[in-house]
Amino acid sequence: VKSEGPKLVPFFKATCVYFVLWLPTSSPSWFSALIKCLPIFCLWVFLLAHGINFLVSHRSASRILAGLIFSAVGDAFLIWQEQGYFIHGLLMFAITHILYSSAFGMKPLDLKAGLLMGVVSSSCYAFLYSYLSGPFTYLVAVYIALIGFMGWRAVAGVQLCNDLWTWTKLSACVGAMLFMVSDLTIALDEFCFPVPYSRLIIMATYYAAQMLIALSAVESRDEEDCRKRS
């Protein structure tokens, strides 16, 4: 916290700016897109502040940075979702989840966590199915499968029973769960019924999720120092 906290100050300030301005979604503009994407830009800077060598030597960190870049593009598309860019945003975030899944890796496998995430994802799609039509019937299915897979890989990394966990893996797990909450709220509000305070729920969980996933890319400096000393 001491080493990484100060680097996140710009992110917290940008997030506050977004919620304070609370620009209306009925009037999309490049300015509103900038304000929405600014916290994600700050997370780019957060990762880049650790140095290019860090990103090059840690593939998971570079993939999370790439995911954040696609997320920002997706955010911009969703500003104009009423003008027909919702699918474009969906595609950008689908790529983001593929990159995050790749960053989290396939070890440990943890099939129990995979089964649990499969049940959760299937249940969500089963509920949404009757509200979907046209290409969204298939697009939403693929998207839920991708974010469910990403959630599985994040949860699988936290082996609490075996005491094989780190704060970075726990951060990835919580971040993935919050991302799923954010996207489920979007789906319910977009396809099913108006969700009270939907925008607040969506953006609060989304920004928190992205921050935690970005934090998961950073190895503990204390652990590195201990390894060097030993």
TrEMBL record:
Pfam families: YhhN. It comes from the Eukaryota. It is an enzyme of class 3 (hydrolase). The keyword Membrane applies. It is found in: Membrane. Keywords: Membrane, Transmembrane, Transmembrane helix. InterPro entries: TMEM86B-like. Its EC number is 3.3.2.2. One of its GO terms (cellular component) is membrane. Its main location: membrane. It catalyses: a 1-O-(1Z-alkenyl)-sn-glycero-3-phosphoethanolamine + H2O = a 2,3-saturated aldehyde + sn-glycero-3-phosphoethanolamine; a 1-O-(1Z-alkenyl)-sn-glycero-3-phosphocholine + H2O = a 2,3-saturated aldehyde + sn-glycerol 3-phosphocholine. The chain crosses the membrane at residues 30-49, 61-80, 86-106, 113-132, 138-155, 167-188, 200-218. GO terms for molecular function: alkenylglycerophosphocholine hydrolase activity. The keyword Transmembrane applies. It is a multi-pass membrane protein. Belongs to the TMEM86 family. This is lysoplasmalogenase.
